[in-house]
TrEMBL record:
Cross-referenced Gene3D superfamilies: 3.30.450.200, 3.40.50.11500, YVTN repeat-like/Quinoprotein amine dehydrogenase (2.130.10.10)
Keywords: Guanine-nucleotide releasing factor
Domain UDENN positions: 71-499
Name of the molecule in the record: DENN domain-containing protein 3-like
UniProt organism field: Huso huso
Superkingdom, taxonomy of origin: Eukaryota
Record's keyword annotation contains Transmembrane: no
PANTHER family given in the database record: DENN DOMAIN-CONTAINING PROTEIN 3, DENN DOMAIN-CONTAINING PROTEIN 4
UniProt KW Translocase keyword: no
C-alpha cells in the first residue's frame, strides 16, 4: 500500500501558540496584579502533523490499538519541548542529547519559521475574557510559482498552572479556580493544502473546534492528530462535474471540483468584491492587476484580505497573475512593500498611513471603506477598461442577485443544518458561475481581436494598438507590456482550447466568422462605421441570422444589431451550469490503524465500482471521474496493476483529466513480478508502452516564444521575404507573395533591400489607417450593404457625373460627390462590360481618363483620373475578372483574392514611385491574366448544379487536401449556444487538422481541432455528441461535439484505421455497436457507450480499405477483392477483380456501393474510368459496365436518392481536373458530368439528400456544395 495519498487534501496540520515559559511569565505577572495590560507574545510552532499517519510498518510492529496509533505518531509529529532551541533547529540535526523535536519529515515547501507570524499576523494575545473564534486564509508561493494554501483558526484556551507545581503545558490544563485568575491565550491551528479549498477546510476546522472545546486538555494533541489523519485520507476530486462529499461530524463537507485541468478550484464566495466595491471600482482594480501594478489591500478583517485578493485574481482567468502574491503581511513583514517589482499584498488597515508613506507608486485598496488611492501625491492614474467591454460588464451585473437574504424570503425554514448549508451552497455555486461567466466575457471582449494580429509567432503590438479606439489605447499600451499578456499570447499561439477560446468561439458574430474565412484586408464595414458614430449602447452586437443555401448571395451573412441591455438575457446567462454529481466517501475509520485504513480504501473501491456499474451510457465524463478515483484508491492499496487498468480506462474515456505524471510514477514503481503479470495482459502492456512513449515525447519542449514584429535589417531572398510578409500579417498565401516579390524586384536583382520593404510596409499600413478614418455620411451608408468596406478612394476628379472621389468596395464603384457628400452608383463589378483608358481634351492638353461601360446604362462612365488612371485601370480590370470568376465558380474566395491583389498593386505603385511602377503592378494582375491565358468557362451543367464553395484552408499558407468530409445533423444538444446546435460540416485536412463549419450558414465554426499529426482516413458521427476520426497513426480520436475537444482515444488497432461504420438498431434497448477496420485486416466491434472492445477478428488480405454493413453482414473492400463476412468475422463470399476489356488487368478496387433492394453491387477502380455492376447473388463477373468519359480513376462514390455520385479525376478542356459523375441507378447512365475542382475529388458526403459536398486534393483544397435534383 502507498503511504501518502497522491492527491490528498492535507499537506500538514500545524498548531501555533505561545511558548509555555512565556505564558507562565504572563500568568505570574497577572497573578501578582502587577499589570492589567498584556503585551503581544511571539507565536511559535507547537505541533506539526504530516502524512503518512499509518504505514505498513505499524502492522508489522503490532501497532493495532488507538493508544498505539497515538504513540506511533510521535515520529510524524513535532511537539515543542524547550524554548531555548529555535524553530530553525528543525532543519538541522546537531546530535544534541536534548533535541528540540522528535523525528519528523516536514514537506519542503512549508516554511515553519515564517508560519507563526502569518497565523498570528496581528500578534498573539493573552486576554481576560475569551473571544470569538476567528478564521483567516493564507497563500504560500515557492520559487517556481507553485502555490500552497492554508486555513487558520484562532481560538482562545484558558491558561493556568497545574496544582502540583509541575512544568506548565499550554495544551494540558487543570483548573484550580480558588487560587488562579482566569486568563485566555490564543491558539492557532493551520491546515495546509495544495488546493484552495477555503470553505471546505474552514468547515473541517469548525468541526474540530467543536470537539476540542468539549474534550479534556490531555486529549488536545490526540484530537488534532486524529483530525489531521482523517483529512489526509480525503482525495481532491478530479476536474469535471463530480464533487466529493465526506462526513466530518456534525457537518457534511463538500469538495467542489475544478471545471477542467486549466481552471482553478473555486471554493470561496466570488461576490464578496462586489459587496465591498462598486462595479466601476472592480474594473479599476482588475485594470491594476492586468497592468501589473504594485497593489496593497487593507482591511481590519484578516479573512477578507485573502478572499478578496483571490477573487480578484480569479476574475482575470484564464490570464494568470505571475508575480508576488502575499494576501496577508504580518506587522513584521511590512517592509515587503518596498519591493521594486509588481506584487499583490495585503495588511491590516491600521498600517495604511505607514505603508502609504513608505514608498511611491503603490495602489492602495481599502476594503473596509471601498476606496482606491495611490501612495503618490498625484491623482490616481488608472487607464479605463475599453468602453465597449466595460459597458457590457456593467450591464450584465445589473441582472445578478448577490444577496442571499432576498432568496430566503420566499423559502420555508429548514430544521436540518445540512439542508440549510446545501441550499446556501447551491445558491453560491450558481452565483459564482454567473460571476465567472461575466468576468470571462469581459476578458474575451478586451482581448478578442488579439489573434487577428498574431502571425507565425509574431505579434504586431503596434498595429494592434492602432486598431483600438483612441480612448482605449492607454489601457492597451500598459497591458501589452506585461508578463500576464505575454503568457496569454503563448497560449493563443499554441491554439490552447481554454475558457477564453471556448467563449470567444461561442460568442463570435457571424460577420466575424465570415471575415476570418475570406481573409479580407482590415477595413471597417458599413455596419462598424455606423456603430462607431452611434450611441455607445449599440456598439456590441451578435450575428444570429443564417441564410439558406438557396440564397444566391450565400456569402453575405446578415448580422442583427443588439443593444447591450438585450445581451444580458440573450447571451451570457444562457450558458448553462453543468449538472453536478456528488460521490460520498465512507466514514473515516476508527481507530486509525493500518488494517482499518486499508478497509477504508477497500470500501471506497467497492462504492466506486458500484457507481461505475450504475453510470448511464451517455455519461462517459462521469465514468471517467470514477475511474480516476478508483485508480487512486487502488494505488493506496498497493494494487498497482488494478490502478493501471483503471487509468487505462480513464485514458480511453477522457484523456483530458489523465494524470500523466502520476501514472508514470506508478509504472516506474512496478515490481518485477508485476511487470511479468503486465506482460501477459496485452492491453495493459500496450498502455504502459504508450505512457512511456508519451513521456519521452513530452520531454521535447516546443518553441512557444512570441516575438514582436520588427522590420528586416538585411537584404532578403524569396524565402526570407515570404516569411517576413507572413509575419507582417499583410498576406499569407505563398503564391500571392511570390507574385509580390516579382513585382518589387522588376528590373533588378532578385532580392529586396530593407529600405524598399520598409517603404512598402509603411505605405500598406498608412493606407489601412486612412481607411479607418473614412467617415461616410448616413445618406451614403444606406446605399451600401452593411458588410461592405471602402478599400480605395481616388483623389477628387472630374467625371461626367460631376466632381467627386471614386470609391471602390468589394462589390462596386461609386462616386462620392463633393460639396454636400452624395452617392452616385457607377457600377457593380458583375455589371461591367468594358473598361478602357482614353483621354479627354483640356485646352491644349490630353488628360488620361478611365471609361467604364456597364450593362445597366447606355452611356459610359468617364473620369479624368490623370496620373492615377493607369493604376485604376489595372485595379478595376482585376476586380472585374475576380468577380466573374467568383460568380462562375460560386466561390467568394476569388473575389477576396482579387481584392488583395488590387491593394497590393496600390502599395507597389506607392512604394516604387517610378516609371516601372505600373509594369510592376501588372505582375499582381492574376485574374485579369488568367482570363486571357486560360479560358475559365464553367460548363452549364456544372454552373446550374453548383451552389457554393467554401475554403477549409482559410488562414493557411497554402491549400490543404480535404481527405474526409462528414455532415452531422443539428439538434445534437439543444442546450448548446452560439449556433452550436446547428448542423455541422467536418473537414479532415492534412496532418491531423479538423475544420468545422456551421452547415446552416457555411461559416467556419472551429478553424482547427488538432487530432494527432498524421493523415486522417475516415470519420463517423454518433448521436452521443461524438465524432469518431480514424487516423493513419492507428488511433481512433473521439471529439466531443459540445466542447469541440478531443478527450478520448481508442488505441486497439495496430495499423492505420481506414474505415468505420455504425450498426443501426431499431431496438432502443439494444446496445449500439460500431465497427472499425485497419489496413492490416483487423476489424474491431465497439460498444459505443462504454468504448469497450466487444469482438475483434482478422481478415486475410493485402490492404483493407473500406467497410460497410448491410442486413447483418459486413462487406469489406480489400483492394484485390471484396468480401462478405458474418458479423463474427466468418467469411461468407469473396469477389475478385473483373477482367478488364482488352485483356489488361484492372487496378484494385477503390470503393464500392451496395443496393440490396436491387440486388446490386457497384464497384470502381482508382486506375480506370469505369463502374462495374454485379448481381449480389452472382459475384463471378459484372453484368454491366458504365464507362465514365475522360475519367482516369475513381476515388469515392456515394448513393443519393436514386443516383450514384462518383468522385474522380479526369480531363476537362485538355487539363486534369477533379470531376464528379452523377449516374442514374435505374438507367445505368451518366446524367451529369460536373467539373468544379482543379484537382482530384477525394471525398464526398451527402447532406440529407438535399446537397452533396465534394472535397479535393491539396492543389485545390476547396469544398464544393452541389444541389441534388
Amino acid at each position: 500500500m502507498a503511504d501518502i495519498l497522491p492527491t490528498s487534501l492535507l499537506e500538514a496540520c500545524v498548531v501555533i501558540g505561545a511558548s509555555n515559559e512565556k505564558l507562565k511569565e504572563v500568568l505570574q505577572v497577572h497573578q501578582h496584579g502587577r499589570s492589567d495590560d498584556f503585551t503581544l507574545l511571539d507565536p511559535e510552532v507547537l505541533q506539526v502533523h504530516v502524512p503518512p499517519f499509518v504505514t505498513k510498518e505499524d502492522l508489522l510492529s503490532g501497532s493495532q490499538t488507538l493508544s498505539n496509533f497515538n504513540r506511533t505518531q510521535r515520529r510524524r509529529s513535532f511537539i515543542k519541548k524547550k524554548r531555548e532551541k529555535p524553530v530553525a533547529a528543525l532543519e538541522r540535526n546537531n546530535g544534541n542529547n536534548d533535541p528540540v523535536t522528535e523525528d519528523i519529515s516536514v514537506p519542503k515547501d512549508i516554511d515553519l519559521i515564517g508560519l507563526p507570524q502569518l497565523c498570528f499576523p496581528g500578534g498573539l494575545q493573552v486576554v481576560n475574557e475569551s473571544k470569538a473564534d476567528h478564521f483567516h486564509f493564507l497563500v504560500f508561493t515557492d520559487v517556481f510559482g507553485n502555490r500552497t494554501y492554508g486555513v487558520v483558526v484562532q481560538y482562545y484556551k484558558p491558561v493556568q498552572f497545574p496544582e502540583d507545581g509541575s512544568r506548565y503545558q499550554n495544551v494540558h490544563v487543570h483548573w484550580n479556580l480558588a487560587k488562579a485568575p482566569r486568563l485566555y491565550a490564543a491558539v492557532g491551528i493551520c491546515v495546509i493544502s495544495k488546493y484552495a479549498y477555503y470553505n471546505a477546510l474552514k468547515d473541517c476546522l469548525s468541526c474540530l473546534l467543536l470537539q476540542l472545546k468539549s474534550c479534556r486538555g490531555t486529549d488536545f494533541e490526540d484530537r488534532v492528530k486524529e483530525f489531521a489523519a482523517n483529512v489526509a485520507l480525503v482525495p481532491s476530486p478530479p476536474p469535471g462535474q463530480l464533487h466529493l462529499v465526506f462526513n466530518m461530524k456534525p457537518l457534511q463537507i463538500v469538495l467542489p471540483s475544478r471545471e477542467d485541468l486549466d481552471s482553478p478550484v473555486v471554493d470561496l464566495d466570488l461576490h464578496l468584491p462586489f459587496l465591498c466595491f462598486k462595479p466601476k471600482q472592480v474594473l479599476q482594480i482588475m485594470t491594476c492587476i492586468l497592468t501589473e501594478q504594485r497593489i496593497v489591500l487593507f482591511s481590519s478583517d484578516w479573512a477578507l484580505l485573502t478572499l478578496i485578493a483571490e477573487s480578484l485574481v480569479l476574475f482575470i482567468h484564464p490570464l494568470q497573475w505571475q508575480h508576488t502574491f502575499v494576501p496577508i503581511l504580518s506587522r513584521q513583514m511590512l517592509d515587503f512593500v518596498m519591493a521594486p517589482t509588481s506584487f499583490l499584498m495585503g495588511c491590516h488597515v491600521n498600517h495604511f498611513d505607514e505603508v502609504a508613506a513608505e514608498t511611491d507608486d503603490l495602489i492602495l485598496i481599502n476594503i473596509d471603506n471601498g476606496s482606491i488611492s495611490s501612495s503618490s501625491s498625484r491623482e490616481l492614474d488608472i487607464p479605463d477598461v475599453p468602453l465597449g467591454a466595460a459597458e457590457c460588464f456593467m450591464s450584465r451585473l445589473k441582472g445578478v442577485q448577490m444577496h442571499y437574504d432576498l432568496k430566503l424570503s420566499r423559502l420555508g425554514s429548514s430544521t436540518e443544518l445540512n439542508d440549510l448549508r446545501m441550499q446556501r451552497r447551491q445558491w453560491q455555486q450558481r452565483l459564482n458561475w454567473q460571476i465567472q461567466q461575466i468576468t470571462l466575457e469581459l476578458i474575451v471582449n478586451i482581448f478578442r481581436e488579439v489573434n487577428d494580429h498574431l502571425n507565425y509567432r509574431v505579434f504586431n503590438s503596434e498595429e494592434f494598438q492602432k486598431s483600438r479606439e483612441p480612448a482605449d489605447q492607454p489601457f492597451y499600451k500598459k497591458v501589452l507590456e506585461t508578463h500576464i499578456f505575454h503568457s496569454f499570447l503563448k497560449a493563443r499561439l499554441n491554439r490552447k482550447m481554454d475558457a477564453f477560446t471556448r467563449m470567444e468561439l461561442s460568442t463570435r458574430s457571424e460577420a466575424h466568422r465570415v471575415k476570418l474565412m475570406l481573409e479580407s484586408p482590415r477595413r471597417p464595414t458599413m455596419q462598424e462605421m455606423a456603430l462607431k458614430y452611434s450611441s455607445p449602447e449599440n456598439r456590441c452586437f451578435k450575428g444570429i441570422s443564417m441564410p439558406d443555401l438557396a440564397d444566391q448571395r450565400i456569402h453575405d451573412f446578415p448580422v442583427r444589431k443588439s443593444s447591450l441591455k438585450k445581451l444580458e438575457s440573450e447571451t451570457a446567462l444562457k450558458i448553462p451550469l453543468n449538472p453536478i454529481k456528488t460521490f460520498k466517501l465512507p466514514d473515516f475509520p476508527s481507530p486509525l490503524v493500518y488494517h482499518h485504513v486499508q478497509s477504508y480504501y477497500t470500501e471506497c473501491i467497492v462504492l466506486l465500482s458500484k457507481a461505475v456499474s450504475c453510470v448511464p451510457p451517455e455519461s462517459s465524463a462521469l465514468l471517467a471521474r470514477y475511474y480516476y478515483l478508483r485508480g487512486v484508491m487502488n494505488m493506496m492499496l498497493g494494487k498497482r496493476l488494478d490502478a493501471l487498468s483503471d487509468f487505462q480506462n480513464l485514458y480511453k474515456t477522457d484523456i483530458g483529466i489523465f494524470p500523466a505524471d502520476l501514472v508514470k510514477k506508478l509504472v516506474d514503481s512496478l515490481a518485477q513480478e508485476e511487470w511479468l503479470q503486465a506482460e501477459k495482459r496485452s492491453e495493459l502492456k500496450r498502455f504502459i508502452s504508450k505512457v512511456k512513449k508519451d513521456n519521452e515525447t513530452g520531454l521535447v519542449k516546443s518553441d512557444d516564444h512570441v516575438k514582436n514584429f520588427a522590420l528586416p535589417k538585411k537584404h532578403m531572398q524569396l524565402e526570407d521575404f515570404v516569411k517576413q510578409i507572413q509575419e507582417s500579417g499583410i498576406v499569407k498565401d505563398i503564391g500571392t507573395i511570390h507574385r509580390l516579390f516579382d513585382a518589387l524586384t522588376v528590373g533588378q536583382q532578385k532580392q529586396i533591400d530593407p529600405e524598399t520593404f520598409k517603404v512598402f510596409y509603411t505605405f500598406w499600413k498608412e493606407t489601412e489607417a486612412e481607411a479607418q478614418d473614412v467617415h461616410l455620411p448616413a445618406e451614403v451608408i444606406e446605399h451600401l450593404d452593411k458588410n461592405e468596406s471602402v478599400y480605395k478612394l481616388s483623389c477628387s476628379v472630374k467625371t461626367n457625373h460631376g466632381v467627386g472621389k471614386i470609391a471602390m468596395t468589394q462589390r462596386r464603384l461609386f462616386l462620392l460627390t463633393e460639396g454636400r457628400p452624395g452617392y452616385i452608383e457607377i457600377t457593380a463589378f458583375r455589371d461591367i462590360e468594358e473598361v478602357k483608358m482614353s483621354s479627354a481634351a483640356f485646352l491644349l492638353l490630353r488628360i488620361p481618363s478611365l471609361k467604364i461601360k456597364t450593362t445597366l446604362r447606355k452611356e459610359m462612365f468617364e473620369a479624368n483620373l490623370k496620373s492615377e488612371c493607369d493604376l485604376w485601370l489595372l485595379m478595376v480590370k482585376e476586380m472585374w475578372a475576380g468577380k466573374k470568376m467568383s460568380d462562375d465558380h460560386k466561390d467568394p474566395q476569388y473575389m477576396q483574392q482579387a481584392l488583395t491583389n488590387v491593394l497590393l498593386m496600390d502599395a507597389v505603385v506607392g512604394c516604387l514611385q517610378s516609371q516601372k511602377a505600373i509594369y510592376a503592378a501588372t505582375k499582381l494582375a492574376f485574374f485579369d491574366k488568367m482570363k486571357y491565358e486560360v479560358p475559365m468557362m464553367v460548363p452549364k451543367t456544372t454552373s446550374e448544379t453548383l451552389k457554393h464553395k467554401i475554403n477549409p484552408s482559410a488562414g493557411q499558407t497554402a491549400p490543404q487536401a480535404v481527405d474526409v468530409l462528414l455532415y452531422t445533423p443539428g439538434h445534437l444538444n439543444i442546450s448548446e449556444v452560439g449556433g452550436g446546435a446547428n448542423p455541422k460540416l467536418w473537414c479532415a485536412l492534412s496532418d491531423g487538422k479538423v475544420v468545422v463549419f456551421d452547415a446552416a450558414s457555411w461559416s467556419m465554426q472551429q478553424n482547427c481541432i488538432q487530432v494527432g499529426t498524421s493523415k486522417l482516413n475516415c470519420m463517423l458521427g454518433l448521436e452521443q455528441n461524438q465524432v469518431w476520426i480514424g487516423s493513419q497513426d492507428c488511433t481512433i480520436y473521439i471529439i466531443n461535439t459540445v466542447s469541440m475537444s478531443c478527450n478520448k482515444q481508442l488505441t486497439d488497432h495496430r495499423s492505420e484505421v481506414t474505415d468505420m461504420v455504425i450498426e443501426d438498431s431499431n431496438d432502443k434497448f439494444s446496445q449500439i455497436q460500431a465497427y472499425s477496420c485497419s489496413a492490416d485486416g483487423t476489424i474491431i466491434t465497439w460498444d459505443v457507450f462504454t468504448l469497450k472492445v466487444k469482438n475483434q477478428f482478422h481478415v486475410e488480405c493485402q490492404r483493407l480499405t473500406s467497410l460497410k454493413l448491410f442486413r447483418g453482414t459486413l462487406w469489406c473492400c480489400a483492394g484485390e477483392c471484396i468480401m462478405e463476412l458474418r458479423k463474427n468475422g466468418m467469411p461468407y463470399r469473396r469477389m475478385l477483380l473483373p477482367d478488364h476489356p482488352g485483356g489488361i488487368a484492372a487496378a484494385g478496387f477503390s470503393c464500392f456501393q451496395l443496393f440490396i433492394e436491387r440486388d446490386q453491387l457497384w464497384t470502381a477502380s482508382a486506375e480506370c474510368g469505369e463502374l462495374c455492376i454485379w448481381h449480389v447473388k452472382d459475384l463471378s463477373k459484372p453484368f454491366h459496365r458504365i464507362q465514365l468519359q475522360d475519367c482516369t480513376g475513381v476515388s469515392c462514390m456515394i448513393k443519393v436518392k436514386n443516383q450514384i455520385w462518383v468522385g474522380s479525376r479526369g480531363k476537362s478542356q485538355g487539363k486534369l481536373r477533379g470531376k464528379i459523375y452523377v449516374v442514374d441507378i435505374e438507367k445505368h447512365s451518366v446524367e451529369k458530368e460536373l467539373v468544379a475542382h482543379s484537382a482530384a475529388v477525394q471525398a464526398l458526403c451527402s447532406v440529407e439528400d438535399r446537397y452533396v459536398l465534394s472535397g479535393s486534393s491539396c492543389e485545390d483544397g476547396k469544398v464544393a456544395i452541389w444541389k441534388v435534383e
